Structure formats: structure tokens, C-alpha cells
Amino acid sequence: MPISSPVLKSALFAVATSISTPALSAETVNIYSYRQADLIAPLLEAFTKETGIKTKVQFLKKGMVEKLKAEGKNSPADVILTVDIGRLSEITNSGLTQQISNDNIDGNIPESFRDPSGNWFGLTMRGRVVYASKDRVSQNTITYEELADPKWKGKICTRSGQHAYNIALIASMIANKGEEFTETWLTGVKNNLARKPNGNDRAQAKGIFSGECDLGLGNTYYVGLMQNNEKDPEQKEWANSMKVLFPNTEERGTHVNLSGMALAKHAPNKDAALKLMEFLSSGKAQELYAEVVHEYPLKEGTKPSATVAGFGKIKPDTLSLDAIAKLRKKASQLVDKVGYDEGPAS
Amino acid sequence: MTLINPVKQTGIAKFGTGYLMPGAVLFVLLLCLPVITLLVLALGGTLDSFRHIATTVLPSAGLTTIVLMIGVGLMTALIGTLSAWLITFFDFPFKHLLKWALMLPLAVPTYISAYTFVEFFSYTGSMQELVRTLGGYTSARDYWFPDIRSLAGTIFVLGIVLYPYVYLSVRALFMLQGSSIPDSARILGAGHIRLFIRITLPLARPAIILGVSLAMMETINDIGAVEYLGTRTLTFSVFSVWLNQSDLAGAAQIAIFLLLLVAILVFIENLSRGARRYHKTRTSSEQGFNPRRLKGATALVATVSCFLPVLIGFGIPVLILSEFAIKDIDQLLSPSLLEAIATTVLLGLVAASLAVLGGLLLSLALRAKPGRMNILMVRLASLGYAVPGTLIAIGVFIPLAAFDNALDGILRQTVGISTGLLLTGSGAALIFAYIVRFMAMAEGSLENGLSKISPNLDMAARSLGRSRFKVVTQVLLPMMRPAIASAALLVFVDVVKELSATILLRPFGMNTLATNVYDFASQGRVEDGALACLIIICIGILPVVLLSRNKSG
To answer: What are the chain B neighbours of A294 within 8 Å (beta carbons)?
Structure first.
């Protein structure tokens, strides 16, 4: 067969290269990422083009802290990329990162979006917003507190309360209003649920489209991703059946979360890693990233994608992200306590 | 049917015990390493977090888990036994096609079936579209439709892909027993239904329990499907406690609690195996099979009952995936996908070979010395099957990385060489995790195969002057070929489907088909991973085809 030999060869080559231990040459940066490889691929290509430094990505879904801890001094990781402030601060608090004071990075990332001690840096921001049915919800403003109002009984859909994004939101409620208030609030939201929490944020948009729910909780970028989904155009319909409401715009602002980066404590290629981090914080990289993932870039003067800009202006809650990270455990236990994931009492 | 005595004194009983047993003990200890790690982690937890878990997590998640297990158990027992009974004792249209097609759903990973079932049965799926068109409805509020994202839905999704475990083991037992007992009962005037309830079912009980316990273990450790369907099982709680409450110790505590549940299952399964420890000396009864030919409506009912599980458990996932994959067909030969295929196959081959070697060690040791303690020890080796893959990974990673770092430190100091992460950086840790996870499959098949070989043969070979070693190599191994093949194939398929341990333990930059799928699935874009999904399923079918040839009957 003419085809088999080149195919076989490339397959064998692929195996050989993937099995061998990573070359720790100065020309490569190793990245541990909670962000999927293909989302950051365009950015990394641009970086390699500009600097000649290659990148290698290991996508992880869970257990980065345990992995880094166990690998210790011999860890191949240089740069850590994550979503969600909780995970970022957990890695930092476990002493797995090192401090950076770099004028370029500090100049690019506003102070409120980086660790005061220089252990982590935000890259992009996303708001946790309310998805509302265009047909069945007339109001155009809302607050998180209002979601507990009995007028929404049987109308709200969310993903699991134990998901990191909801945990961060609940933690921000604890920080702003106290634990007791939050427990009552969360019970109220639970009683208003249209169904047992399930699926991801997109599934809540789908629920609005199908008429199962009037309101959903979700991140801003999912709307951008759904509106631009050429592969599964049905999702455009879901996105078009709803509008984005930025909660608490009149007062403290909308709860936001970060995607961010950190330098691994035992980074074997520190210099190259710093170059990558400088690059990622640059306005050009942030806009490129924001365009792909439909999140808000952090550097002053940069713009989000046209789709995201179309949602209107976001006013972020200025609550310190560190405070949110510290309250995660309490938030998660509260979710267990009120039995949020068991859904509405019928 | 001629039965002889249970294994007591066998031909290899007096040989090899010097090497076989200590080897097996060492091997089991090695396999227990991850569980021991988890135990140590669990003991390191604070009383405070344990109180939280015991009061808020265990009761509800425990109940959900038990209901789910019972549901899946009943469903797999029903479908598996019924189809095995129809296929073995009756003749009806398409029977020979259905005989092997009934195994197909096993090739579909649960995380994929969950996703495709939601696509198919949810509001925007084909099923409800049909309902809306027929009923003239316009919104989900106009009509009732069962929600696939519920406990009942989860039972359905898991049951429809896990029933082949029961089908396989029950059919194997029917074949082994032959038709003499049912035939006699028929001669004595028992009707089909009566025969099934009074004779066939009780006879099949050990095989049903074996199949159901495998399906239940899969259910216990499943995270992909339950997470997607919103069912809060104990395994789900393991992850929320670990990741959101940063409490690995608490997560390990729940995992240990899970293991207790499993220990009970293994114990029950063990009892059923114990009752089966008999050997046939001849295979003559198999030739005596004369399935009843069904006609008319009865034949139609039989064909449909065997066809439905295949259609739902295999047809729907493949149909949904194909719809997406067809758009990506040009990527079939892309380097990244080829790399993933090659890596996956290689990992599967290596893990399957090693698992078979380990399984041989255990099952031969057990044949040589079948004491109660030894049976218990071998069952310990199967525990990994019930632990969620991610936890196995953590349990493997922590001690092996510690070993890597210690070795590296010593070598650096003494000879100035750095070995780096020798085991955890090279894929050796991953292979080890696979073996821990799937030893139950390998050992179970081998032990089962070995039990069908009469110990008389060992003794005969010995008395004919064969050395003890040669009894194994010249007599037992050749006769175990089918069992070795099925053990290797089962492990291979499971490795190809495995995701959780792979994602954490793979060497830097290595991608398998499953991680490829997860890359997309975790972004809610399973459609982009559909092609890789289909390839996983195709690789999973291979053994089904090979096994069906092996066991033609």
C-alpha cells in the first residue's frame, strides 16, 4: 500500500517523540495549563514566531497542585496557566510559585489583577452574569440578591453549585454580605431553581432556549463562543434567545474571575519563561487571546472582541480576588449544607 | 455433565510454591501502593473536615450512589440475562448477528454515551423534536418528557452500556453447562417461562453476580457520566471536596469509604465464584445444544428484545458522533490525531501485556495454593478497579515521584548524574496505574480460564515426567490461550478508554485519543472531538470481533 508507509513512519516518529522525556533546552518553555491547549495555541505560535523560543503544553484538568508538589525540584514546569482565582491562589499558597518583579509585566497588568507579592498575574477577566430570556424576561437590570426573590420560583437554571465559577460567586457573596446572609440567599436561589443543577454554562442557555428556564447563571465568554459557533450552529440560536444582564451594576458591580499565570518555583527555563510571561501580558497578546476566548483583556487601552463589546459595559466588583480565594472552602461547604445540588424541593 | 472435585491438590501444588507465592505477594503489595497512599492521606485529615463530610456529604451522596448501583445492577442483570438466555437457547432471525452485536455497547466509554444521550434525548435532540412535531408543541413547558439528566437517566445511560458484562458472563456459563438440565426439565413438561424462572435463572446466578459486580464497580468509579448528568455520587463528592475545599485528605476519606462498599461487592462476588469452583472434564455437552426455533410473533419479540439494547447502547452514540465527525473527516490523517492513535495503541499493548503477565502470576499462584488467605490476597489486587482513575493517579504519583526525587538526589550526590523524574516523567507511572486499575479484568479472565482446566491434567503431565515448570509452559499456557487473549483484550480496551489517570500521569506533551476528546469536551465542544471518539469506539470493537470468533458457539 502506498499510503501505509509514510503514515506509519509519522506515527512511529510521533510515538518516539512523545514518549521520550522532554528536552530541557533553553529554547523551550514548558507550560502546565488548566486552559485547553488549542485555546492558547494561537498565542504560543505568535510567541515562538517573535522570539524563536518553543513551547510545550501539558493540559491538566485536576491535581496540578499535587503534581507540582510531588515532582518537586525535578518538575519540568516553567509557566503555570490557570482559570479561576481559586486555583491560582491555591497553587501560590502551596508555595509552588516564585515571586517576580518585572516592570514590563507590572506595567501591563493593573494592580488589582495581580498578586501584591508578585506570585500570580491575571491575564483576562470574565464576568459571571445572568442569562435572561428575551421573550419572557422584560427587565434589563438585575442583582445577584434578587435571584433569591420568590418571584423567580421555578425559573432559574444553573450548573452545579460545586463548580469553581459558582463557588467563586458564592464566596464573593460571603465577602460582601456575610455568611448568614449568603446561606439564606443560596437557599432562596435553590428554591427558585427550575431543575436540578446540571450541565455546563451553555446548558443553561439551552434551557432558556427550550423554555425550561427564564434565567441562567453563566460566564460572559460562553455567550461569545455560542454566538460564533460555526461547527454547531444550533448554539447560535440558544445564544440569540437570551440577553446578557450584568448584575449589581448600580452598586458594587458584577462578580468577575480571572484567567492567570504564574512562574513555577523550580522552573528549569526561567529566562525563557519570563519572556513568555512578558509576552502574554502585552497588549497585543491580550487582544489576540481575548479575541479567541471572548474574555476581557486586562491591560488599559485594550479592547474585547466585538461580540463581547456588544453585551454592553461591565462594571467589575472591586472586591479583592484574594478575599474570594480565601472563602472558597466556606462557600463549597455552604453548597453542601443547603443541599444546593439536590435541586428545588418539589 | 461430569464434575470433579474442587481444586484441592493439583499438579502444580507441590511445585513453584517456593517462587510463585512470594512473587505474587510482592506483586499484590505493589498493586496496593496507591490504595495505601490514599489511606495515609485519609488519616492525615482533620477531624473538622471529616465532620463536615460525614454530616453533609456521605448521607446524600451515599444514598445516591447506592440507588444508582442497585438501579444499574437490576438493569444490567435484566438485559444481560434475558439476551443471553434468548441467544443461547433459541433460534430466531438475525440471531447470529445479534450474538456478537450485543457486546458492542461495551466499546462506548460512559462519558461519551452520557454526552450523546443528552444530545439525543434533550430538548433540542431528535427524540423531542419528533415529540414536538407529533404533538404540535412549541416549548418545553407544553409537554412532559423524562429528563435524561436525572438519577433515573443516569441509571439508564450506564445500564445500557454496561449490560454486556452480564451478557458475556451469563452466556459463557450457559455454554459451559450445556443444555442437558433445561432439556430434562422440558421433557418433564416445564414451559419456557417456568423453565427460565425455576431452572435457568438459579443456575445462572453466579454468572449474573459476577457480571453485575463488574458493572457496579464501573458505576462506582465513574466520574465522566455522573458529572455530565448532574448525579451527585460519592465519586463526584470526592472531587468537590478535593478541588473546592482544597481537602485532599477529606477526598481520600470518601474514597476509602467507597472502597468499603466495593469490598462488600467483592466479597459477594467471591462467594459466587466459590460456588463455581468445579471443572468439566469433557466438553461434550456443548455439542448437544439444540436451540429451539421460534416462529412468528415470538420470534419477532426475541429479535427486537436483543436488537434494542444494541440500537440504543451502540447505535445512538455512533450515530450522533458520526454526524459531527463527518465534518472533520479530512483531519483523519492529521499528525496530531495519528500521534494520538499510535500513542494510545502503544500504551494499550504495553499495559495489556504486563497486566496479563501479572494476572498469570496471581492466577497460577492461586492454583498452586488455593487457600482462603490467598484468595483474599488476590482479591486485594483487584481493588484498583473500583477506585476513580484520578485518585489512582494521585496514589501512584506521590510515592513514585518521591522515589524519583530520592534516586535523583542520591545519584547527583554520589556520581553526579541526574536521573530526573525517571518513573513519573517517562510514562512508566502511567503504565503502572493502568495495571493497578485493570488487574481485576486480567486476573478475573485468567482465573476463570484456568478453573476450566482440570487439575487432573497437571497431575497427568507430572506423572508423565514433565518438570514442574514445563507443566505450566507446555500444558497450562497453551490451554489458556483463549483466556489470555480475552484478558489482554479487555485490558487493552479499558486502557484505550481510560481518561482520568492518563491526563494526570502522561509524560509531558503526550496525547492519547481520550485526552484529545477531553480537550474538547471540557470546553463544551465535544463535537470537535467526535472523530477521536469514533476511533476509540472502533478500537474498542476490535476485541469484540476477535472475542466473538474465539468463542464461536
So the answer is: none
Q: What is the CATH number of the domain that holds B403?
A: 1.10.3720.10
Q: For chain A, positions 124-163, list CB contacts with chain B under 8 A.
A: 160, 162
Mean pLDDT for chain A overall: 88
Ranges of H-type helices in B110-233: 110-121, 126-135, 151-177, 180-187, 192-195, 201-221, 224-229
For residue B245, give the nearest of A202, A209, A332 by CB distance.
Answer: A332
Task: Tell me if B522 and A211 make a contact (CB, 8 A cut-off).
Answer: no
The answer on pLDDT for B526 being more than 50 is yes
Judge whether B448 lies within some domain. yes
Model ipTM value: 0.72
Residue B445's domain comprises 337-553
Chain A, 248 to 307: residues with Cβ < 8 Å from chain B are: none
* B472-516 pLDDT tens trace: 878 888 888 878 888 888 899 889 988 888 888 888 878 899 888
Dihedral angle at the C-alpha atoms of B321, B322, B327, B330, nearest 10 degrees?
110
**Which residues of chain A are within 8 Å of residue B341 when distances are taken between CB atoms?**
11
Amino acid at A96: L
**In CATH, what is the architecture of A126-255+312-342?**
3-Layer(aba) Sandwich (3.40)
The secondary structure element, H or E, covering residue B376 is helix B372-380
Write the pLDDT tens digit of every residue in A125-170: 999 999 999 999 999 999 999 999 999 999 999 999 999 899 999 9
Interface test with A, best of B131, B240, B247, B392 (most A CBs within 10 A): B240
pTM across the whole model: 0.79
In this structure, whether the domain defined by A25-125+257-303 belongs to CATH 3.40.190.10 is answered with: yes
